[in-house]
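In this section we walk through a basic example: taking a raw amino acid sequence and producing a predicted 3D structure, encoded as discrete structure tokens. The instruction is simple. Fold the sequence below.
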Amino acid sequence: MQGIERDRLADYLNDWLEISRFKDYSPNGLQVEGKAHIQRVAVAVTATRDVIDQAANWGADALIVHHGWFWRGEDSRVLGYRHRRLRALLMADINLFAFHLPLDVHKEVGNNICFGREMAWPEPELLGEQQLIARADLPHAVKVEAMQQHITLRLERQVLVVGATQRPICRLAWCTGAAQDMILEAASLGADAFVSGEISERTTYLARELGVSYFAAGHYATERYGVQALAEHLEARFQLQCCFIEDPNPA
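The resulting token sequence is shown next.
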């Protein structure tokens, strides 16, 4: 029988993604146990009810996501939408794997690396606490408006920019998802501009006062690429059948 045993896949992913070195907000690795043998793997950004239903309809044995469950500080009771999600997963006997920070910073399939490649930016250095900030020097200075248009075209969604919008960009830093407050660290690393997914009310003022351009490109939009790269890796490594499930989110 083709495929891989669940425990072997769990051990491989835990080791390859180096989950033990991270201080994270939710458990990384296998979060909900399902079938013992895995042939078909669905990947998605977030383990929503719609994603679970699509994975079950496709016949997935495992679902690997960036945003899993059991976040620190959440109500731990299994009620309402949590019950409906968990019940759907258990009824389909699907294994749920989640990799949060490990899938942000991995040097091959990490969100930051993959997002930078999608944007056609130079290969970055991974810096800062837990190497969460990618930084690269551009081959030539780029105007803020041109960078905004470039990201917008690549992501096929409007990108918001605030801060020092007249400053040319020579050194660029980025961190996908909800990393807007890392603008402080990006500025300390000499970045002229910082790209992330979300924006807070305070971000505009920080960008102005730090003299940095901040681009809010969308949490979901910037974190679609790591799970897809991971699926490609698993297909090549273990000959597993993999599919990416979209659950679009404008935020």
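Looking at the output, two observations stand out. The chain has a mean pLDDT of 97. Residues 24 and 30 are 15 Å apart (CA to CA). In the next section we compare this with other chains.
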